[in-house]
Amino acid sequence: MKFKYLFAIIGLLLVIIFFSFHKTPSLNNRIKNLELDQETIYLIQRGTTGKLGNVAKDFNIKNSYASHLGIGFLENNSLKIYHVYVDKSKNNSNLYIENIDDFIKPEDLNYLSVWKLRNIDSKSFRHIRQTLIQSEKENISFDFKFEESNNAYYCSEFIVRKLEESNVKIMSDHKKKIVGMISQILKKDTLTYFPVDGFESSRNTTRIFEWVK
Fold this sequence. Notes:
The chain has helices at 2-32, 51-57, 100-103, 122-135, 155-164, 180-186; strands at 42-48, 68-75, 78-84, 95-99, 109-117, 141-142, 152-153, 174-177, 190-193, 205-212. It has 6 helices and 10 strands; from the N terminus they run αβαβββαβαββαβαββ. It has a single domain, classed as endopeptidase domain like (from Nostoc punctiforme) (endopeptidase fold (from Nostoc punctiforme)). The strands form 3 sheets. A 6-stranded antiparallel sheet has the order 4-3-2-1-5-10. The chain is of the alpha+beta class.
């Protein structure tokens, strides 16, 4: 009987391992087949299952998967993604510039979606692109206080502010009552912020890709 249970457990582990290794390649293959356009601005959402990701999801309006947001465009036929993250990069900045393969590297990744900004003409595209490139020279830090300040942003705030510099609006701020430890840390009972999914109902965005693990 002990051997039967042992074989059953081993079999179950092998099944889990098999599917774990085959989920990500399917995502990679789908990304490779994703058709992206030149002179187009994209918003890229990802979701993770870790503690940080789950906390971020609690502040979404509807999307129960997305926990992080980036913005990008095609550069040398590769999607170049700008995003602000809580951990500092190798350049000692909270601004990351990555390709899509690096953006989806978190081991606990369970969600990815790509959205296209509509009504962006060539002039607007060039201005947004230049604004993002210019941000590489800025000393950008993470906005732990969730307050408007120079060069300190959380992920969606960075995108909203940089697009505003090109007179492009994708969402309005959102208010949420907060309690417990988060309220104590931020020293406020109402949070005004830009949700990771705050743009999804905008007429200026269209989802072109979605993957859920």
